[in-house]
Amino acid sequence: MTLIDTPAAPFDASSFLSVNDLRVQFPTEDGVVKAVDGLSFSLERGRTLAIVGESGSGKSVTSQAIMGLINRASATIEGQVVLEGQDLIAMSNEDVRRLRGTTMAMIFQDPLSSLHPYYSISRQLVEAVRVHQKVSKADARKQCISMLDRVGIPSAEKRIDDFPHQLSGGMRQRVMIAMALLNSPDLLIADEPTTALDVTVQAQIIDLLKSIQQEFNTAIIIITHDLGVVADTADDVAVMYAGRVVEYGSVEGVYRRPQMPYTLGLLASVPRIDRARVTRLDPIPGTPPSLIALPSGCAFRPRCTFSAEVPDNLCSDVRPDLVEAADGHQVSCHLTPEKRLRNADAMFALLDGRSEAGVQAATPSDPESGDPA
Q: What is the Cα–Cα distance from 292 to 328, expressed in whole angstroms?
């Protein structure tokens, strides 16, 4: 799986899934919301890509655009989403609809609102089968019971007639996974699949996704803000901010040597059980920018604690490109490679409490004055 640097790098349409310069904009009375602003990546079967970032960074809109779930009457969608040689953006809504459930499927963030409260699980699952397969209701029901059993629903032959409110959150999420898998899709998009679930159920859902991928060689995109889920499931990770990818690489590479200050902030704000913590967690200052009026230059500049280290007001005037920082590791930042690596090492030293020098090196500067905060 590789990320394509837009617009310099070539578009690899030969991959199983290739997204090239995807842009999604929503016109409003206050201005144009640039929800996704030039996203490009490719994904192979049997691989998992995690897309992470704060709320409003463009993660869910990306997944909805790939699935063809955005109303084109109220949004502008540009770029290419090529799945097995077919450009989904150029296809009609009806043609894309035929692919949903068979070639691609999605697990939505909130199963309680995604499942119809007035219909039984049986009715909803059977319908999902018969829309794409010419089988009887009895045969479709057998398939559904079998799939519910495979995703870990106990007494599936009985629970299939329950209504959504009769199931726990974890079981509803398993029903959503079963529905997504009923027609053996090649691409599975999971939008916050473990949100609001306790850690035990989260682990079970993660293990289930892993086993599904191993059995069916499925390509998986996980949309999440939970960095622990990323570490457990993904091969590669794309960090999004203000509609763009600001860092990309293998999970190991990004977690061990993060280079974008935003990624540093995300990692610093998450508790670690494998490190002795002697200081409080350090949250990212400020809030994400409005997608209607992004700041000039680097969108993260108003919140960045290292922008004072960049000369000539580059962070204020020039939006950084996504460039190669190491083999397979890309970053969008004006800091020099040496400073990016130094800041990463200093952050880990601060988290470990190992080095007073590291603590001092990682002391953030006020973005306005350049003085230590």
A: 32
Q: 317 forms bridges with which residues in the sheet?
A: none
Rounded-to-integer distance, Cα 62 and Cα 305, Å: 28
What is each CA distance from 327 to 237, 255, 344, in whole angstroms? 14, 15, 17
Assign 294 to helix, strand or coil: coil
Cβ count near 30 (within 10 Å): 9
CB burial of residue 311 (10 Å; 0-12, 13-18, 19+): exposed
Q: What is the mean pLDDT of residues 339-343?
A: 91
Residue in 288, 298, 312, 286 with CA at minimum distance from that of residue 366 = 286
Name the percent of the chain in helix, strand, coil, to the closest 5: 35, 20, 40
- Calpha distance 319→297 (Å, rounded): 4
Question: What gap in Å lies between CA 246 and CA 331, rounded to an integer?
Answer: 6
pLDDT digits (tens, 9 = 90+) for 236-276: 999 999 999 999 999 999 998 899 999 999 988 877 666 55
Q: pLDDT digits over 19-66, tens only?
A: 999 999 999 999 999 999 999 999 999 999 999 999 899 999 999 999
Backbone angles phi, psi at 220, to 5 degrees: -125, 135
Q: Which residue has the tokens 């974890």?
A: 170
| DSSP run (H or E) holding 37 | strand 31-43
Nearest to 335 by CA among 295, 357, 365: 365
Tens digits of residue pLDDT in 126-156? 999 999 899 999 999 999 999 999 888 999 9
SS (H, E, C) 227-254: HHHHHHHCCEEEEEECCEEEEEEEHHHH
- Tell which phi-psi region holds residue 356, choosing left (phi > 0), alpha (psi between -120 and 50) or beta: alpha
Q: Which of 70, 79, 110 is nearest to 6 (CA)?
A: 79
Residue type, 270: V
CA torsion angle 70 239 20 27 (round to 10): 40
CA 54-198-273 angle, to 5 degrees, is 70
